[in-house]
Write a structure and sequence with these properties.
alpha+beta, Monooxy_af470, 32% helix, 3-stranded antiparallel beta sheet, 4-stranded antiparallel beta sheet, Alpha-Beta Plaits
């Protein structure tokens, strides 16, 4: 099945295949004072240009991302090919993240607590996924879409077999 275009429905039961290093990175903002868009809107607007910058560079390490909205505010789930590439981007002075981080810190000193930033980083040893008749996103969207084989019909089996490397045909 391989790489399926984002947004295209992948029929049937599919999972992902990937045998390299995999990093899942969640990053978001909390709207602590929703009535202060003058403070949180610049933080919100910084998200998309960074994702566009990363997506335009095939060597950036960003495999894919999903933009979501949680009860405290927007966030992104990002899939990376390497923890080093993620950290390199975070600290690169010639890319969009570092200047945006500096602007956020300066603003946070002026209006403490109005908006928050958070992230979580996961270095994935094994992962299991299953999608049924859905558009391609998440792990399959970041890696390779493969049909769920008979022996991998149960989540436990996919995880026990290390689904990040499963490529049976």
């Amino acid at each position: 099945m391989g790489k399926v275009a984002k947004g295209k429905i992948s029929p049937g039961r599919v999972t992902h295949a990937y045998s390299e290093e995999l990093v899942v990175f969640h990053i978001g903002m909390t709207l602590n004072r929703w009535w202060r868009p003058d403070v949180w809107m610049p933080v919100f607007r910084a998200f998309r240009p960074m994702l566009q910058e990363l997506s335009a560079d095939a060597d950036s390490g960003l495999l894919s991302y999903e933009l979501l909205v949680g009860r405290r505010g927007p966030y992104a789930v990002q899939y990376w090919s390497s923890i080093d590439k993620l950290y390199d981007y975070a600290s690169a002075t010639d890319m969009r993240h570092r200047p945006a981080w500096s602007r956020f810190n300066a603003m946070a000193r002026k209006v403490p607590g109005a908006v928050g930033i958070w992230h979580e980083t996961f270095l994935v040893e094994r992962a299991e996924s299953m999608y049924v008749d859905t558009p391609v996103f998440g792990l399959p969207g970041a890696t390779e879409v493969v049909p769920v084989q008979t022996r991998h019909r149960r989540a436990r089996t996919r995880l026990d077999d290390g689904a990040t490397g499963v490529k049976d045909g």
